Amino acid sequence: SQVAVEVATVVDDELVAAFAHLIPQLSQSSPPPTAADLTALVARDDTALFIARVDGVIVASLTLAFYRIPTGLKAWIEDVVVDDAARGRGVGRLLNEAALAEARRRGAKDVSLTSRPVREAANRLYLRLGFEARNTNVYRYKF
After folding, report:
1. What is the dihedral of CA 80, 6, 99, 48, to 10 degrees?
2. Would residue 90 be called left, alpha or beta, if left means φ above 0 and alpha means ψ between -120 and 50 degrees?
3. Measured at the alpha carbon of residue 23, what is the angle toward residues 18 and 57, in degrees to the nearest 5?
4. Which SS3 state, helix, strand or coil, does residue 7 take?
5. CA dist., res. 100 & res. 106, Å (int)
6. How confident is the model over 84-102, as pLDDT tens digits?
7. Burial level of 134, CB count in 10 A (0-12/13-18/19+)?
8. What is the CA radius of gyration of the chain?
9. pTM over 0.85
10. Hey, which residues does 75 pair with through a beta bridge?
């Protein structure tokens, strides 16, 4: 089966349905994005919404978010999700490689991400791709 990675530029029923299927596999606490949510995301210059297809069907997504600070342009990889049925086919690797290429093209000085320790396969992938574990604390303030 062939894997194709692209940046989503059109929000249609297929994309909305794909996220309705994928997001519950990523987060039990976050509802899937609506068509309006996805339209707002796709329209932004500071994000790139990558999707991966296997044999034409959307099976995965990754969001690359950019932000500018005094020390330069940085990027974060967020909300990486590969459908359970598509795991082990290199989909995650191809999504991440596409995101890194886009970040490099846009001049980001680095790309960061977080991954829970229990996601062992994902963590191995990030190390193989050249990400380095940082000795840092990540804090979150919730509203």
Report:
1. -80
2. left
3. 25
4. strand
5. 10
6. 999 989 999 999 999 999 9
7. exposed
8. 15
9. yes
10. 66, 111
